[in-house]
Structure formats: structure tokens, C-alpha cells
Design a protein that fits this description.
Helicase, Ruva Protein, domain 3, 3 domains
């Protein structure tokens, strides 16, 4: 008999505070940590930062009803455990929720026995999954069984470093090309740390508007600037006692870098427009696809902040340096994406795998995942052959040679490939960035660097 896997963390979504607090107390008595969300949008935001063993979801809410939230949760994670709650029960609603993938249905006011029955359903489902799910080489990313997949020597070294650094409180600096999985590694460190039951908050520094960044990070008080109609909690406050992940940290301005350095040194911060200091207990993980020593030499990154962040450096290998992981990654993405699309998982021929292993993957693992997704969408086949692969991968002649007869530098190869993709997409940067597995801002920087039009 499989050992029951413990429920550790539950998300409660209800616009009635008395209901949230009552369930939280009941779960606390069962040694289960509860996180509360007062509406659907807040719930979906929390689900982006971490996974939960169970979501208790009210149906009647103002901004988004529970049915909409359930559909979004199931689209993002088909394996999520969701139990619906309502004060207006009907058989039709119960049947509809079940068809959409809800595990159970509780009617307000429900008893502790009803709650225990729902928890037992999750326990039993986890036990079955534990028996039926084969082990895959990799490392735990979070409680939703997601993995960083790999068994090559470079990845085994990364797994060893994650295992050593995760239980500590040290800051970690993750470097590597776009698409190598820097955020996955950050989440793995958090999931295997003593802070795993607290929040993991990720911010993409390249996606935030500079003028709003300070308010986003630190929050602001009502009336502190034009448009500040109410007090706002910042991301640091949300991450307190948890882990804060800065992705593409080189995009922070020198002004924000100075404020971040002070936060790390003093372990406290103030909201914009406030004089009250808030104590901060947070672990900082940062990532960059630009070498920070180079940014320091260029005068765009503070050297003292670099030393604060890089207590433990982790450099992720590009996919071309761990080609033996490609078949395993292909299998992983075929299973994951087929399940998401609710279609049978195809197999892939050895010849097609061979082509994918030889391709240079400038967009790394993210580009590989996008390539598999494109195949599943466009190709209707039980066995993926070489002819089913995207044309830009199987092309051997013309604009791009995967292995040129005369060796060239990696920068020259990257320039040629970006030019090739831009030509194929007729200059559409959004489409080109998606194929390359990088964001549009990174693509624009590379276009400028190489003088491409």
C-alpha cells in the first residue's frame, strides 16, 4: 500500500472574511498551513507564485465567479486539486463543477466532518498518483510534482548545488542564457528550503516600468503621489518570510539598485511616501542572462550589490552543452503538453530525436518546449518523424547551416540565426522572440548589437 502523502498547504478563496478565518483555524488545528485570497484575481496571482495541495474555492464572488477561476486553474494545471464552496447549492451547479474538474463540492455552512471528507479525497488522490507516477530523473521544483529534468553531468552538478544551498539562508545569483531555466532553479531552491511553506515572489525586472518599479517593490501610502488613491502593499511585503526572485536583475536602474542594496543590508524598508519602517525577513535570489562583471565594467551595475547577491553563484549550462538530456526533455514535454491539450501522447522516431539533438538551440530548453508544442498543434500523427519537425530545425542548406564547414564563433552563429528567424517571420519581433525562446526586449538588444534590420 502506498504511503499517504501529506496535505501541507491549502489556498482558501472566499470573499467572506468570516468563512476564510473559520477554515484557516480548522486547517491550523490539523497542522495544515492556509493562505487566504479574497477574490479570484488574487487567487490566480498567488497560484502563479507557488503551488498548493488543495484550493478551496467559493463560487459566488464579485470580480470573477468561482467557475471562471476553476477553468483558469485547470487550464494552467490540469492536476490541481480544487474543492468548490457555495451557499446556493443546486444539482446542476454540482454536476457542472465536477465536469470542469472539481474534486468535490461543499455547501455552506459545512461541518468539520465535511471538510475532513474533502481532505481525505485529496489524500486518496495523492496516494494513487504516488503509486502510478514513475520516477523521473530530476529535482523537486514545487509541490505540484514539476521537475527540472536532466541527468547529464552538468545538470547533476546543478542538482548537487541546489541541494546544498537550498537549506541555507544565503543569497544566490543564477546566471545563464535565456531559456536555460533560471526561474525553475530559483523555485527549486525555494521548494527545498525552510521557507517552502511561505511565499515565492518573482518579478521580471525587464517587464516593469521604471517609474512604477519603486511602488511595485516597496508599496505606497495613499496620497503619496498623483494617482495613489489608496495604500498599496508592495512585493517585498508580500514576500516577507519567503523568497524574492529578481529575474533579469541587470535591468534595474542604478537608483533602484542603491535602494535594494540598503534593503539587503538593513533588512527593512519603507513604503513610498511613508516614514514607518517595515522589518523584512526574506531570502533574495537573482538571475541574469548578462554577465554581471561585464555590466559592472560598463557602469550599469553596482559592484557592492553584486557581492551581496553572489554569495552562492550558480551558472546554468546551455542546452547545446547537455545534449544527452534532450531525449528526456522531449519525452517530458510530450507528456506534459499532450496532457494539457487533452490528446494522446505521440511517440517520436529515433531519426527525429537525432535531428533535435544536433540543433544548436539558441533559445535553450524554452525553445525546445515551444518546438514540441508547435508540433503537437500542427501535426496530426501518432509517431513524430523528421518531416514533422519545424522547417527552421530540419533545414540544412541555404540561410543557416547547423554545422558550417568553416567553424565560426558563437556570436557569429547567433547573429546568423537571429537574422534567419527574422527573415522567416518577415520582421515580426514578437513571433521571432517566441521562436528564439527569449523576450522581445532581449531580442531588440541583440538586433541592435548585431546591426540587424
Amino acid at each position: 500500500m502506498a504511503k499517504r502523502r501529506k496535505i501541507e498547504h491549502v489556498l482558501i478563496v472566499d470573499d467572506e472574511e468570516v468563512v476564510r478565518k473559520g477554515i484557516s483555524r480548522a486547517l491550523a488545528n490539523r497542522n495544515i498551513h492556509a493562505t487566504e485570497a479574497l477574490n479570484g484575481k488574487e487567487a490566480l496571482a498567488r497560484l502563479q507564485t507557488r503551488s498548493f495541495d488543495l484550493v478551496l474555492l467559493d463560487i459566488k464572488m464579485e470580480d470573477m465567479d468561482g467557475i471562471e477561476v476553476l477553468q483558469q486553474i485547470r487550464r494552467d494545471d490540469p492536476e490541481a486539486n480544487v474543492v468548490m464552496i457555495t451557499g446556493y447549492p443546486t444539482i446542476a451547479t454540482a454536476v457542472h463543477c465536477t465536469k470542469l474538474g472539481a474534486l468535490d463540492y461543499l455547501t455552506k455552512p459545512f461541518s468539520l466532518d465535511d471538510l475532513d471528507a474533502a481532505l481525505n479525497k485529496v489524500h486518496n488522490k495523492k496516494a494513487v498518483e504516488g503509486e502510478s507516477t514513475p520516477a523521473r530523473p530530476g529535482i523537486k521544483q514545487d509541490s505540484a510534482k514539476r521537475l527540472i529534468v536532466g541527468q547529464s553531468p552538468p545538470m547533476r552538478k546543478i542538482f548537487e548545488k541546489i541541494a546544498r544551498v537550498a537549506p541555507t539562508e544565503s543569497s544566490v545569483l543564477i546566471s545563464g542564457e535565456s531559456g536555460t531555466g533560471k526561474e525553475l532553479v530559483a523555485r527549486a531552491i525555494h521548494a527545498n528550503s525552510n521557507r517552502k511553506d511561505m511565499e515565492f515572489v518573482a518579478v521580471d525586472c525587464s517587464a516593469l516600468v521604471e517609474t512604477l518599479l519603486e511602488s511595485e517593490l516597496f508599496g505606497h501610502v495613499k496620497g503619496s503621489f498623483t494617482g495613489a488613491h489608496q495604500t498599496k502593499h508592495g512585493l517585498f511585503e508580500l514576500a516577507n518570510h519567503g523568497t524574492f526572485f529578481f529575474d533579469e536583475i541587470t535591468n534595474l536602474s542604478l537608483k533602484i539598485q542603491a535602494k535594494l542594496l540598503r534593503v539587503i543590508q538593513e533588512r527593512e524598508f519603507m513604503k513610498v511616501g511613508d516614514q514607518h519602517r517595515i522589518k523584512l525577513d526574506v531570502r533574495i535570489i537573482a538571475a541574469s542572462n548578462t554577465p554581471l562583471p561585464e555590466a559592472i565594467r560598463n557602469g550599469t551595475f553596482r559592484e557592492d550589490l553584486f557581492y551581496r547577491l553572489s554569495v552562492v553563484p550558480l551558472e546554468l549550462p546551455p542546452l547545446r552543452n547537455r545534449r544527452e538530456d534532450i531525449p528526456l526533455l522531449i519525452e517530458h514535454f510530450l507528456e506534459k503538453l499532450s496532457r494539457k491539450m487533452k490528446k494522446p501522447t505521440p511517440t517520436i522516431s529515433p531519426e527525429a530525436v537525432g535531428v533535435l539533438k544536433q540543433y544548436p538551440w539558441p533559445g535553450n530548453v524554452r525553445e525546445l518546449e515551444h518546438a514540441i508544442e508547435r508540433i503537437l498543434i500542427l501535426e496530426d500523427t501518432d509517431i513524430i518523424q523528421e518531416r514533422n519537425l519545424p522547417s527552421y530545425i530540419i533545414q540544412r542548406q541555404g540561410d543557416l547551416q547547423i554545422f558550417p564547414e568553416d567553424p565560426i564563433t558563437l556570436e557569429e552563429l547567433e547573429k546568423k540565426y537571429i537574422a534567419f528567424v527574422l527573415k522567416k517571420t518577415k520582421g515580426k519581433k514578437i513571433e521571432a522572440a517566441r521562436i528564439l525562446g527569449i523576450n522581445r526586449k532581449t531580442l531588440s538588444a541583440k538586433i541592435k548589437k548585431y546591426g540587424l534590420q
